[in-house]
Amino acid sequence: MDRNAPADFTPHFAGSGRLKDQVCFISGSSSGIGRAVARLYAAEGAKVVVTYHSSREEGEDVAREVQEAGAEVLLLHLDSTSRESCFDAVAKTIAHFGRLDVLVCNAGVQKSEPDFTKVDPEWIEKIFATNVFGYMWLAQAGLEKMTEGAALIFTTSVNAYRGHKYLIDYSATKGAELGFLRALAASLADKGIRVNGVAPGPIWTPLIGETMPAEDVDAFGLDVPMKRPGQPNEVAPAYLFLACRDGSYMTGQVLHPNGGIPVGG
């Protein structure tokens, strides 16, 4: 794999209408896996809410890609650490589209630190506020409007299952997300609302180069059986399966696009 090549967000196949007219909200969709999910949902006929945190320009780029796929799009700023921002974004979605069918909680942060004793309290509060509380705020806001047949999808991680020695705090947040989705799925099953997750392995996204030492970037993904990192467009189909009727008998479950890493639990 060319380490200088950009991540690939382009859907592998033309859409077949599996999300036709469904309103799909994706947090963290201005980059990485979320961007690939937004493009795939658009190709499948969804109305897509693209959210960004730091770069409106990146959000506008993804919104344009969604429109080019023929889909209606709403671009919103979202600060996942803020309950007010999460509720406001969902309220604007409802005001614009009148409904919410699929909620993808995907926004997250990480940074590598070999010595856990050097992880400062401010960062621990930030990573939990983004990766855990943000999912909870969005779920609370969304569930006020979501009805039978709706779906929530959480991005957790292979590190929720096996941990990572340089990403201890991050692994802990991903484990919290996993417990949250399983409990929420049990709570909502009687209402016909499904809650599932995707636990990617090493995926080649802009976050990797921005948050990892150069030597780790060079070796990224080489330790899995397939001997390479995955691309965002290799992960996005898992989110499509869980969002559409193909996944109608799935709740409380996690899909594992991870290059062959054995996962139990």
Number of strands: 7
Structural category is alpha/beta
Query: Into which percent range does the helicity of residues fall?
Result: 40-55%
What top-tier CATH class fits best?
Answer: Alpha Beta
Please describe what this structure looks like:
The structure is a single chain. The chain is α/β, with parallel strands linked by helices and 265 residues long. The protein has helices at 32-43, 56-68, 83-97, 121-143, 159-162, 168-188, 206-211, 214-219, 232-243, and strands at 23-26, 47-52, 73-77, 102-105, 151-155, 194-198, 254-255. The two termini are 31 Å apart. The model has no long low-confidence stretch (mean pLDDT 94).
Q: How would you describe this structure in keywords?
A:
265 residues, alpha/beta, Rossmann fold, seven-stranded parallel β-sheet, 7 strands
SSE topology:
Elements: E1 23-26, H1 32-43, E2 47-52, H2 56-68, E3 73-77, H3 83-97, E4 102-105, H4 121-143, E5 151-155, H5 159-162, H6 168-188, E6 194-198, H7 206-211, H8 214-219, H9 232-243, E7 254-255
Parallel strand pairs: 1-2, 1-4, 2-3, 4-5, 5-6, 6-7
Helix pairs in contact: 1-2, 1-9, 3-4, 4-6
Protein name: SDR family oxidoreductase
Pfam families: adh_short_C2
Family: Belongs to the short-chain dehydrogenases/reductases (SDR) family.
